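Internal tracking record. Fields below are filled automatically when a chain is submitted to the structure queue. Please do not edit lines marked as system-generated. If the sequence contains nonstandard residues, flag them in the REMARKS field before resubmitting.
Queue: standard
Priority: normal
Entity type: single polypeptide chain
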Amino acid sequence: MIGYRFSKFTPPPDGETSDFERLLKVFMQLILITAGNVSEALQWMTEVDRQYQLTNANYGMGDFIDDLKKNGYITDNGPNGEFKLKAKAEQNLRQSALEEIFGRLKKTRGGEHKTHHNGRGDEPTTDRRDYEFGDTLEQISMTDSLRNAQINHGYEDFHMTEEDLEVVENEFKTQTSTVLMIDISHSMILYGEDRITPAKKVAMALAELITKKYPKDTLDILVFGDDAWQVEIKDLPYLQVGPYHTNTVAGLELAMDILRRRKNSNKQIFMITDGKPTCIKQGIKYYKNSFGLDPRILNQTLNLASQLRKIKIPVTTFMIATDPYLKSFVRDFTKANNGNAYYSSLQGLGNLVFEDFKRNRRKNL
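SYSTEM-GENERATED OUTPUT FOLLOWS
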């Protein structure tokens, strides 16, 4: 007989994971550090395995690589036979970052940005008000409206007028357009400290959060060094620091240009950086000062902060540094923009981004 025979599934004990799942977590962390270089990540894993015995006699690195290919995480069909990440691995990276930083969040419909204002939304409240022109039929409370008609006009000659109608207030939920700016200047890996990997992880978690919980929102991501350019969400694991200075002006100008094209009334910029502006572009040439705090560069940066304030786009700066002179610059920049600033360690960066993202969900009236 052709068919399928099903048996009872007995899950493994709590906390027990397979050898593949255990190694996959290590592999995914190394993929971020190596900017998506699968071969380099596997070489690192082999070295770590040699020192700390990640594998055992029943499951070795060769088995792990075979399972990576079998489960759709990597492929060796590159132009020269090299390993490449597949879309499933990129999705796994974003999901892992989301769970690590923001916790497990369920996908919902609608804007989901709660405010203190009432209006059109999909969460009814207990509040009632008189009907106003523009209210939809779905908002009308039929029970309350019928009761009003009976009280106002009696039972015998029943009829209903506009004055009898009552409307159920819905919780107003806004939609937000966010631009995330990531500094990829050389200082992000100076002195042996890897700052770019936590920044990438936060970007991936924020992208996954918006996709799952706030699908009507928009998130655009850009990187800035000597210049600024936009990147796709799928490109995040492959971001690398370059031999660049920090052109904050170019990043802010590109962010403004992106947000001008967004129709949402709520707009915001998140900027993750570890240094001061050290570069601006003048015509086709670059003006650079590696020591920073150059008046010509600072003035242009602060002028842009003021322009963003006038068009009601707050900039939240996450400074991965605590030097006093950097704090002074961030303080002036935040005052000019009327935004927010945080001086974060690498460990606390994700939570700060998430908390400020939630706090900024308000309707600009």
